[in-house]
Amino acid sequence: MTQHFMVIGNPIAHSKSPAIHQIFAASVGLDIRYARQYCPDASDSFTAVVEAFFNGGGVGANVTVPFKQLAYELCHERGGLSAHAAVAGAVNTLLLKDGKPYGDNTDGQGLVNHLQQLGWPLSGAKVAIIGAGGAARGTLLPLLEAGVASITLANRTLSKAEALIQSLRNAHPLIAQAALNTSTVDELEGDFDLIINATSIGLSGDTLPLAPTLRCTYAYDMMYGRELPFLQHFSGLGAETSEGYGMLIGQAALSFTQWTGKPLAVAELMPQLTAMP
Ligand code: ATR
After folding, report:
1. Which of 19, 93, 165, 168 lies most in the core, judged by the most C-beta atoms within 10 Å?
2. pLDDT above 70 covers what percent of the chain?
């Protein structure tokens, strides 16, 4: 029997999720239909589309920009949330549990899984994250669960990094006890094992004001699909680098397994997943 899935967003026409999930489904012998679902940017419309999907027998939905916070609110009010979604304040994966909407957030764990797939050591690592928006927020708990020793959150607007850490400390005991620091981007200095770019700068054409003394062994950009100045900068300083396509795959794989109960051999599928148009 065909199982139905969707990704809901605005815009949505260029989403790679349908193609990614078809490759996953084929690899485990499942017959699925995975649709791109456009939705007007309004709370009522989002709720109506989600309800219609699940009432029609849909199994699972991914949620993307600009609906991740609305999906969080829907699950918070009417159903349940995973710890990762509760801490992130955002939902990217929807399913029904006991007939009610349940939200998870697999973005941060998808990042961690990709870092581990790359062979980058996380246990005891000294990490810096640049950016303090939604993308950064979702990474803190999964990175701490993976055993990193410390996280410095650097942001153009220092007060936003401080406010984010303050709210996260209240949200989860692991974060409450963690070694967390804040900095402005230009004052971030010294040696880190891993630096992650979680800003939206890749879309703007601007570059980050990185200090000349800032160094790392590994540099990761959550963006993908083009020449990224952040990665070029650290590559020029001898760091190993990766763009964020594997994170997109990682979050999708976690959603798929949660919906279907089928584990995926993601590393083996990477050649197929990177060859997609
Ligand atoms: P997302 O959900 O992708 O994290 P967001 O919540 O809008 O998006 O956050 C964007 C992040 O990128 C913020 O940390 C923002 O810094 P500010 O908090 O100071 O605005 C950062 N950012 C965006 N453009 C930037 C730029 N040109 N230079 C430095 N940081 C930038």
Report:
1. 93
2. 100
